[in-house]
């Protein structure tokens, strides 16, 4: 499964309004999980089996909750049993289609 998620602390902004420190803590959890992942300006994408992906998302929320009494989570999942490597394969298929 592929999961795209975004975590937003409600009360962990610095004086400029940035929440980068709290978000970095969540991304660190994802990267340390060993699962295929990527982070862009809006979401972190992670690939793996249901239980392992959801455990990583839960832990990422928990580390943000350590610095904020309220945490928002946006999550989108592509559940397609039997397929792996889709974090890059889906993008490669679109790129090939664009070349036509």
TrEMBL record:
Span of domain Thiamine-binding protein: 3-95
GO cellular component, one term: cytosol
Gene3D superfamilies in the record: 3.30.70.930
Top-level taxon: Bacteria
Similarity-based family: Belongs to the UPF0045 family.
Designated name of the protein: Thiamine-binding protein
UniProt organism field: Nocardioides humilatus
Taxonomic path: Bacteria, Bacillati, Actinomycetota, Actinomycetes, Propionibacteriales
């Amino acid at each position: 499964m592929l999961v795209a998620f975004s975590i937003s602390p409600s009360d962990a902004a610095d004086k400029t309004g940035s929440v980068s420190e709290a978000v970095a803590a969540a991304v660190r959890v994802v990267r340390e999980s060993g699962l295929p992942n990527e982070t862009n300006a809006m979401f972190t994408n992670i690939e793996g089996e249901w239980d392992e992906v959801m455990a990583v998302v839960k832990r990422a929320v928990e580390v943000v909750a350590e610095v904020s009494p309220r945490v928002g989570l946006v999550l989108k999942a592509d559940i397609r049993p039997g397929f792996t490597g889709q974090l890059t394969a889906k993008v490669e298929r679109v790129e090939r289609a664009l070349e036509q």
